[in-house]
Design brief:
With about 575 residues, this protein is α/β, with parallel strands linked by helices. Strands 14-17-18-11-10-19-20 form a seven-stranded mixed beta sheet, sandwiched between helices. It has a five-stranded parallel beta sheet with strand order 7-6-5-8-9, with helices on both faces. β12 (about 360-365) and β13 (about 365-370) form a beta hairpin. α1 packs across α8 and α5 (about 115-130) packs across α10.
Amino acid sequence: MAAELPAHSLIAKHRPTLDQALEAIRTRAYWSPHPEHPKAYGENGSLGMAEGKAAFDALLGTRLDLGQPGTDDWVGDETSPYGLALGITYPHADIDTLLPAMKAGQRGWRDAGAEARAAVCLEILKRISDRTHEFAHAVMHTSGQAFMMAFQAGGPHAQDRALEAVAYAYAEQVRTPDNAEWTKPQGKRDPLAMTKRFKPVPRGIALVIGCNTFPTWNGYPGLFASLATGNAVLVKPHPRAVLPLALTVQVAREVLAEAGFDPNLVALAAERPGEGIAKILATRPEIRIIDYTGSTSFGDWLEANARQAQVYTEKAGVNTVLVDSTDNYKGMLSNLAFSLSLYSGQMCTTPQNLLIPRAGITTDEGTKSYDEVVADLAKSVSGLLGDDARANALLGAIVNPDVKARLEAAAGLGEVALASREISNPEFPGAVVRTPVIVKLDGAKPDDEAAYMSECFGPVSFAVAVDSTADAVELLRRTISDKGAMTVGAYTTDEEVERDVEEVCLEEAAQLSLNLTGGVYVNQTAAFSDFHGSGGNPAANAALCDGAFVANRFRVVEVRRDA
């Protein structure tokens, strides 16, 4: 039976978008094909706000049958951080049946070529984009993100990162020509002549281990990078955030089948409560690529034990902001307050440590002492979150009990400059909503160092008093070197301090944001332009997204013949 979506038609449909993405990663300028505003959806086949909510509601209490082989049970126990029991069940796979079925489809997918694979990936993304409102509710009710953040970060921003990965994957695969004629002169003798053919071949089956907080944003880059480079992809979602990735797998399987490829190139591995299949899957010989976002301990375990696979990890770090001076004091405070509050600090890029000299800082409002800076920041956070409706829209919900426990314990680590308060959510009474806590610590005290040199994931920040800006620079260096950082921020009007901070970040490979006082925040990055992580410090061994993130997902095999 003829394919409903032949590859050449998909190439014609999506080549212009691919070309724009290739140009965007070359120039690093702003570009996105995925609208950020909810009202942009509802026409040309995309679901509007009401339709997306209805589609999500229709999923509740149902069985999501993906039609994949080896299903031996149905599992699922997701409860929204907003208190809603999803009641959705997913196929549990007999891995010994599923993995061979996935491998069987790789030959046809490999032989399709880089352009056809990219076009199929872009068709998958187009269909996901059309259902952005539905996906937003799925992300919201598994991660605890507020709706607008779930819509943007879980929708268009995640789709942008996926498209970025496809663009890098395509660029790396076509770097080597398909064919070459090789002639070597031999003096008076006839030249040596050969024809050579070069073919990108996949490493094998890729495993994506999803996270609870950003299932699509963190899951899509690895998924689409592996798929675009010819690999089958097994998606193992976090047990509390299965739905967004299960819907993604469903869409991918539909598009692959319609395009004439084996739908088993993408499959889901949902697990029973407490089953812990990630370690089992990660060490299977069939698994040749692993993408993981989560705790340092499991990331380190993967790097040490999944020896048969190319492992890409985003783990934990201690993100730091150095405060030396500013010419926009109110703007600095406002920017920091938003960064500390967004999604209750449950982002791998949220600042944790604020390094502030004891003698204070110079500002456009005069010299501000350490105590004044901390007190003013606390007031700024309180003002930002003073209205409960606005607070709910920024904070979302606490994603799991571990985050809540860390938040409550943080108040006992030092002097509390800003206490966390409980906020009720009228729409979702079961949601656990808390404002951030700011704790004052002394950079010279060993007991305090034990606290600020450990990641405290969630709405917890430490205002660390240091003896001088020079000491802050050295503490910044040590923090990145020992613990890693996904982001670094600095505020200074001194060119020498700026150079010192930049040099630390260059030497320790940490992404730096300087003097942010407007609508761009240290914990946000833009696809096609900003690199998320660097892969050069302990927080992550890969960056989203660069050539290194995709190039080792395939190898080039050469076939040569005498001409």
